[in-house]
C-alpha cells in the first residue's frame, strides 16, 4: 500500500499504464484531460467509467473525447430527487489494485490539499468492483441475477474463437491439457460483470435474515433493539465480504463450464468438414484434431462432473 499527497495525477496515470485487462473508474468529476488521454490510449482493454450527472461533466471536453473514442461512460443521476451525488473517487485496475482517496480527477484538484492511496489487494479490489457495479446499475434496475441468453452467447462465441485460434497456432504440437488450461481475460471480465451484478442483486433481496444471521442467533428476532450499533455495522461489513475469497475459483469454474459448449460447437464444425471431405490424408489430420478436442473435453468434464458430455 502506498499513499501520495503530491503529483497525484502522475501516480494515477502510472497505475493506469500498468493495466492489462480491465479498468473501472468511479469519480464525481472527471475533467483532467491528461488522465483522460491516458485512458483512451488503453481502450483496447475493458474500460468502464461512471461519473456524477452534472453540468461540469456533461460539458467537459475530456469526457466527450473519451466517449467519442468508444469508451463506456455512465452518468449517475439522482433518480429520487433527494440530492444524491455519486461522490466516489476510486479506480479498480485488473481486479487487484485500488486507487482511492480525496482527489477528484480534475485540474482544479491539483491546487488542493488532496491524497490518494494505492492498495494492491484482491479482496479490496473485489469489494470496490462490486460497489462499482451496484452504482452503475442504479438507473437500470435488474432483478434477473442469472446470466442472460445474450451474455451466454457472447461468452461462448469468445471462447469458441479463442480455442479455434489456439488449435491453429498449435496444429503441429497438441499438448496435453492445452485447451483445459486455456483462459482469456476478456472472457473473465464478462463473467466478472455477471458475478458483480448477481451478487449485488442477491444482497439487495437477501433481507435481514441473511445480513444479521449471527445477531439473530445471539439475540433472537429482537436483535434490532438488543444488539449495539457497532455489532450491526460489523455484521453488515462481514456480509459484504462473504465469499469474496472464492471469487477466483468461481470464475475458473465458470470458464470451464462455458468451454464445454464452445468445444461442442468445435466438434460439430469438424464433423461437418469430415462429411464433405474426400481427401484421406486431410480426413486423418482432422480426425487427430477431433480426438484431441474430445480428450480435452473429457478432462474438463471430469472436473465439472457435468452432465453436458
Could you characterize the architecture of this molecule?
The protein has 309 residues and is α/β, with parallel strands linked by helices. The chain folds into two domains: 2-136, Endonuclease, Chain A (2-Layer Sandwich); 149-304. The chain is 57% helix and 12% strand. The chain contains 14 helices and seven strands. It has helices at residues 8-18, 33-41, 55-58, 61-68, 122-136, 149-169, 178-181, 185-205, 208-211, 213-219, 223-226, 229-241, 247-276, 280-304; strands at residues 2-4, 22-27, 46-52, 72-76, 89-93, 97-101, 116-120. It has a seven-stranded mixed sheet with strand order 1-7-6-5-2-3-4, with helices on both faces. α1 (8-18) packs parallel to α2 and α2 packs parallel to α4 (61-68). The protein is globular and about 75 Å long. The two termini are 46 Å apart.
The gist of it:
The chain is of the alpha/beta class and 309 residues long. 57% of the residues lie in helices and 12% in strands. It contains 14 helices and seven strands.
Secondary structure layout:
Elements: E1 2-4, H1 8-18, E2 22-27, H2 33-41, E3 46-52, H3 55-58, H4 61-68, E4 72-76, E5 89-93, E6 97-101, E7 116-120, H5 122-136, H6 149-169, H7 178-181, H8 185-205, H9 208-211, H10 213-219, H11 223-226, H12 229-241, H13 247-276, H14 280-304
Parallel strand pairs: 2-3, 3-4
Antiparallel strand pairs: 1-7, 2-5, 5-6, 6-7
Q: What can be said about the biggest beta sheet?
A: 7 strands, mixed
What percent of the residues sit in helical stretches (DSSP H or I)?
Answer: 55-70%
Helix-strand topology string: EHEHEHHEEEEHHHHHHHHHH
So what's the overall shape? globular
How many beta-strand elements?
A: 7
- Uncertain ranges: none
Q: How much is the average pLDDT?
A: 87
Q: What is the number of helices?
A: 14
Q: How large is the radius of gyration?
A: 24 Å
Amino acid at each position: 500500500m502506498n499513499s501520495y499527497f503530491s503529483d497525484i495525477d502522475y501516480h494515477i496515470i502510472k497505475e493506469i499504464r500498468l493495466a492489462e485487462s480491465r479498468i473501472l473508474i468511479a469519480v464525481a468529476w472527471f475533467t483532467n484531460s491528461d488522465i483522460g488521454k491516458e485512458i483512451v490510449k488503453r481502450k483496447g482493454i475493458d474500460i468502464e467509467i461512471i461519473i456524477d450527472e452534472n453540468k461540469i461533466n456533461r460539458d467537459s471536453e475530456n469526457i466527450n473525447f473519451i466517449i467519442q473514442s468508444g469508451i463506456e461512460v455512465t452518468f449517475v443521476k439522482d433518480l429520487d430527487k433527494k440530492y444524491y451525488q455519486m461522490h466516489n473517487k476510486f479506480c479498480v485496475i485488473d481486479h487487484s489494485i485500488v486507487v482511492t482517496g480525496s482527489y477528484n480527477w480534475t485540474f482544479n484538484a491539483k491546487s488542493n490539499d488532496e491524497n490518494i492511496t494505492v492498495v494492491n489487494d484482491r479482496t479490496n479490489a473485489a469489494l470496490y468492483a462490486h460497489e462499482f457495479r451496484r452504482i452503475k446499475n442504479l438507473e437500470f434496475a435488474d432483478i434477473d441475477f442469472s446470466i442472460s441468453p445474450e451474455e451466454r452467447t457472447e461468452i461462448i462465441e469468445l471462447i469458441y474463437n479463442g480455442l479455434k485460434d489456439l488449435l491453429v497456432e498449435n496444429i503441429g504440437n497438441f499438448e496435453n491439457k492445452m485447451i483445459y488450461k486455456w483462459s482469456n481475460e476478456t472472457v473473465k471480465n464478462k463473467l466478472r460483470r455477471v458475478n458483480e451484478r448477481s451478487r449485488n442483486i442477491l444482497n439487495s433481496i437477501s433481507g435481514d435474515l441473511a445480513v444479521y444471521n449471527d445477531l439473530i442467533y445471539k439475540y433472537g428476532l429482537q436483535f434490532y433493539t438488543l444488539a449495539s450499533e457497532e455489532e450491526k455495522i460489523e455484521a453488515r461489513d462481514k456480509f459484504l465480504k462473504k465469499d469474496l475469497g472464492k471469487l477466483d475459483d468461481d470464475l475458473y469454474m465458470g470458464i470451464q463450464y462455458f468451454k464445454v459448449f464452445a468445444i461442442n460447437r468445435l466438434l460439430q464444425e469438424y464433423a461437418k468438414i469430415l462429411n464433405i471431405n474426400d481427401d484421406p490424408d486431410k480426413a486423418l489430420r482432422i480426425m487427430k484434431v477431433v480426438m484431441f478436442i474430445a480428450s480435452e473435453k473429457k478432462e474438463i468434464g471430469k472436473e465439472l462432473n457435468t452432465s453436458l458430455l
